[in-house]
Every structure is written in structure tokens, then in C-alpha cells.
Amino acid sequence: MTPRHKKPSAPAEGSSASSSMEEPYIEAWGHKFHHSGRIFVPFDEKEQERMELHHRLFRHCLNGALTATRIPLSVQNILDLGSGTGLWPLEMAARYPQANILGIDISRIQKTNVSPNVRFTIDNVENPWPTPANSIDFVHARGLAGGITDWPALFKQAYEKLKPGGLLEWTEMAIQIFDFDNNLGDIELCPKFLNLWRDLSKRNNIDFTPSPNGPLWLVEAGFENIAQRTEILPIGDWAQDEKLRTRQNLMNRVSAEHFENHCALLFTKCGWTREQFDAVAPTFFSEIQAESKKPYTMVVFTTARKPRLEED
């Protein structure tokens, strides 16, 4: 079973941007993927809904803030990697009206009504960025897992582009599910399905849970002051705390409505049919929906700084 290459269709009126549908695309299980076949996250409307849910979820984890990093109001140049629909750079533009914000994404799905201090460029973030060395104050990357094949090279480029003392923030959700009542963080739920997912990802040189390796890659690139902040994201109907219940409601929508988004191309390229996938997927949901379980996953906010120049 292989994904189908299709010609573009006209974008719907009122859609985000002048649409990556102007390019050919790959279709798998009704989802549209970048025509290169190397990006395992789709760009269609269903995926754009997921991106916006994640944006709300991450802001909630940060108590309404747009970053885990404390950014000075005098910041001048901000680079956003994997902008998606462009929500984050547009909200940053309102928060930092004096800053120039450049967003890079491989698909043209950004909103067309943008602030004058925001611009987008369409490219793979693993390619050289259109910015000089030592020119960026803050590099922001979020939700890149599924599209990156060389994480160390990505962080080396970030180091090169940042000014001395410049800041980096990288956010990823873990493709892991644990039981809150069972050795917190030690015993994984759904191991059979998730191990299958990891095996298929490895065959395609993709890591959907790269955060544990992040500190090492950042040290190798030359960064300092590296820190990781982990937030719990409940799934199901067990959270009692109001803050956790809000996260839980958002996560339930993500897991129920958008589960197959990240599976379609990966499983298809590895020879799976939709029918074969549908035969194993229910075991995943039955385990996380069991009344005796309190499932959760995590989001990891990784922050770092390029060293400042030594004073004479």
C-alpha cells in the first residue's frame, strides 16, 4: 500500500492562506501531506484544527503566556519554526509590536490577514534559513516532531543564527502515555501500539518523542542554561483539579478526533492498509479509556541560551 500523489484542487473560500493546495500533495486515508513524502504530519483542515487546539493547550500550560522563556520587551528579531496556521507569531506580534517576526513552514496554510511586523516564508526548516548569522534574538520551535530527520543540525543552525545571548525555546508533546496511579512516569500504557508506532517511525528516520535527547543536542550545539519544563496532560475523565480538567478536555478532543493524523502516512508508507490499522487501533483506545486507569501524556518546554560575548 502506497500513498497517492494527487494534483492540487482550488482552495475553499476563506481558507487560511493562498493554500499549499497550489502544489501537488500526497493523500493517505483522506489526509493531505506534503508532496515530498518526508513530512509525516498532514496540512489539511483537520490538522489545522489540531494545531489550534494545541496552541490553546500550550498557552493554558503556560498560564496564558506565549512562551516559557522570559523575553525582554525590547526584542527585535524573532524566528518561528513550524508556524503552521500562524497563530503563535500573530499573537506574538501583538505582544511585541516593535519586533520583526519571521515564520517558516513547509506548507502554505498561514492566515492571510497578518500584522505588518509578521512575514512568512514557505520552506523546510531543515534547509538554510533566510537570516544572517548572529541576527536573531529569539528562536521558537513547536510541534516539529514528524518532520525533522536531523535534530542536531537544526539546533546547530539555531545557534549560528542567534545573537550572542539569544534565546531558544522548543516545545514538543511526548508520544507516550502513562497511568497517573501506577508509578508515575515509569509504566507506559498502550505499549504494544506505541512500540509499533516507534518501530515504523525508526524505519523512516523519524522520532516523534525527541525531547529526552534535546539537552544533549543543545550542549553539542554550544548552548548553555538549558532547562526543561514538563507539564502533565490528562486524558479521559479522571482529573479533579480545574486547571487539569481544562487540559483534559482539550486533550480528549485531540486524541479522539485527530489520532489518525499522525498515523496515516507513516503506516501507509510501511505497507499498512487502513483496514489493518483499524484492526489494531481499538486496543489503543480501550486501554486508555479503561475505568481503572488515569492516563496522561506530557508536553515538554525546552529552553536554552547562546552564550553572551565575554566582556573585555
From TrEMBL:
Biased composition (Low complexity): 9-21
UniProt-listed InterPro entries: SAM-dependent_MTases_sf
Pfam family membership, one: Methyltransf_23
Residues covered by region (Disordered): 1-21
SUPFAM superfamilies in the record: S-adenosyl-L-methionine-dependent methyltransferases
Signal peptide residues on this chain, from the entry's feature table: none
GO MF annotation: an example: methyltransferase activity
Family: Belongs to the methyltransferase superfamily. LaeA methyltransferase family.
Listed name of the protein: Methyltransferase domain-containing protein
Organism of derivation: Xylaria grammica
